[in-house]
């Protein structure tokens, strides 16, 4: 089994054909897709500190606000007015449109909704370019020939490898291999999530 320092994009490209015993060009041409799908699977299944990101800026003078690149899920969304931070509360898009039916009217935002994959919808429409801070779960910069390492290759290499093998086995329509690598992926990802829960418990424990 490769060690943590062995797993990067180049190693994955080399290892997948060997593990799946597929050396044909059709398989090799799909390897970047397998890796991309594996990264998406892990980002969806696991909410780790390594996937957390923070972005700051100022509101656009609109009810529609940009989401950052690779955003997946919001943790907190706050803005500052009169020197104090205000938490925006998550609501449905339908609720916001009823709450603030005229976007041309402005005020202090209280709520936000997911408008689409690239934008938030806020109500009220900001009356000024208030500074904001958004904490969110993000997909990491995708692995590629020019970006051979990221947080996953350094901190959960086995999980990444098993996820790649699972995606490749699904493409090969090999149910035996698919079942094998799914079990390995579930075990590896479960171990990582268990470590994360222990860290959170330690962080929240009180010292007497």
Strand order of the largest sheet: 1-10-3-4
> How large a portion of the residues is in β-strands, by DSSP E?
15-25%
Structural class: alpha+beta
Task: Provide the helix percentage.
Answer: 40-55%
- Sheet with most strands: 4 strands, antiparallel
List the domain count as a whole number. Answer: 2
Mean pLDDT: 89
How would you describe the shape? elongated
Number of helical segments?
6
Span of the ends, CA to CA: 43 Å
Order of helices and strands: HHEEEEEHEEEEEHHH
Quaternary structure of the protein: single chain
How many β-strands, per DSSP? Answer: 10
Radius of gyration: 21 Å
Low-confidence parts: 198-208
Describe, in plain words, how this protein is organized in 3D.
- The protein has 208 residues and is α+β, with helices and mostly antiparallel strands.
- It has helices at residues 9-20, 25-45, 93-99, 151-155, 157-171, 175-204, and strands at residues 52-58, 64-66, 71-81, 84-87, 89-90, 106-107, 111-116, 119-123, 125-126, 131-138.
- It is elongated.
- The chain is built from six helices and ten strands; from the N terminus they run H-H-E-E-E-E-E-H-E-E-E-E-E-H-H-H.
- Helix 1 crosses helix 2, helix 1 (9-20) crosses helix 5 (157-171) and helix 5 runs antiparallel to helix 6 (175-204).
- The strands form three sheets. It has a four-stranded antiparallel beta sheet with strand order 1-10-3-4, with no helix packed on it.
- A hairpin with a 2-residue loop joins strand 7 and strand 8 (119-123).
- It has two domains: 4-48 and 156-197, no CATH class; 51-138, no CATH class.
